Structure formats: C-alpha cells, structure tokens
Automatic annotation (TrEMBL):
<dbReference type="GO" id="GO:0031410">
    <property type="term" value="C:cytoplasmic vesicle"/>
</dbReference>
<protein>
    <submittedName>
        <fullName>MTMRD protein</fullName>
    </submittedName>
</protein>
<dbReference type="GO" id="GO:0005085">
    <property type="term" value="F:guanyl-nucleotide exchange factor activity"/>
</dbReference>
<dbReference type="GO" id="GO:0032483">
    <property type="term" value="P:regulation of Rab protein signal transduction"/>
</dbReference>
<feature type="domain" description="UDENN">
    <location>
        <begin position="1"/>
        <end position="76"/>
    </location>
</feature>
<dbReference type="InterPro" id="IPR005112">
    <property type="entry name" value="dDENN_dom"/>
</dbReference>
<dbReference type="InterPro" id="IPR037516">
    <property type="entry name" value="Tripartite_DENN"/>
</dbReference>
<dbReference type="InterPro" id="IPR051696">
    <property type="entry name" value="DENN_Domain_GEFs"/>
</dbReference>
Amino acid sequence: DKEVRAIFLRLFAQLFQGYRSCLQLIRIHAEPVIHFHKAAFLGQRGLIENDFLTKVLNGMAFAGFVSERGPPFRTCDLFDELVAFEVERIKAEEGNPPKMIKHVRELAEQLFKNENPNPHIAFQKVPRPTEGSHLRVHILPFPRINEGRVQELLQEGLARSQGAPSAARGDKKCVVPAGPPVGTFV
C-alpha cells in the first residue's frame, strides 16, 4: 500500500516539478489570492501541446492543490521536500530501476512512519467476559492499586517522553522551499 502511494508521490513530484516558480500572489482582495500561471509552466517545460498535462492543470483537483499548497508559509511535508530537493535524484534514477525501487521503498518507509509515529504502542482489544463469569468462585478479586507505584511509573514515562526526540512531524509552519525553477527541467 505504502509503496504504491510512494510511486504516485514520485509521479506527481516529477509532473509538478517547478510549479512553485509559476505561482503568483495577488493582493487586491482582503485575502490574498494565489494564481498559477499555467502558460508559463507549460511553456518553460516545452509541454504546451501536451493534452494530458493541460487537462490536469485545468481540473478542479489541481485548483484545490494550488489553493492548499500555494501559500509560501505553511506546514511542509514529504511532497514539498521531493519537489524542492530530490529533483536531481529522480532524474538520475530514470534509467536505473534498482535505484528507483530503492527510493520508492525509502519513501514508503517515510509514509509509514508519518502515519505510525509510535509503532511500538499496540492497542489490544480486551475480550468481553463470558456469560456467568461473575459467578465463578475461582477468580481472585482485583488487587488494590499502589498509588505510589502509579505515580512513579507516570514520572518515568514523562521523563522518557521529554528526553526522546519526536518521531512524528509537528505542525510547525515554515517557508516552503521553492526548489529549482521550471526552466531547468527542459
């Protein structure tokens, strides 16, 4: 599942490489509007006659993509890093399938880590007691809880969580890296 998603992530990163250089911020309204200059994007990549890409750029999904990913200051993710920093790596892997597969597996691992930041925490379902279980005599009563030991365990857990680096990405906003301009992909 994650490898298929990683393949599509790479595909869209290749398809939209340099899109940030064709974004225009229009400030004539109370809220700034982000506009994507489609002709510049297609012209600089030499794809003006490409019907598929033209239809993708004219679609509502791409308009949503621009409005969501257009702001220059927002939370960055794996796609932003791919578009900005992995352009040359993706280009170099085009003729080398083993390297491409290795990169796809690395991306799949990152996607898995993003969705499961704490894989060691497993949730188990507690089975429901069977009928008449409360009538059984051989079941021992639940032991009393030692409040001192509970506090001690809580303190240990807090100390561990404060000392360990967070595996999940925070929602920390930053300036989105623009990556290379569109003209470098021709």
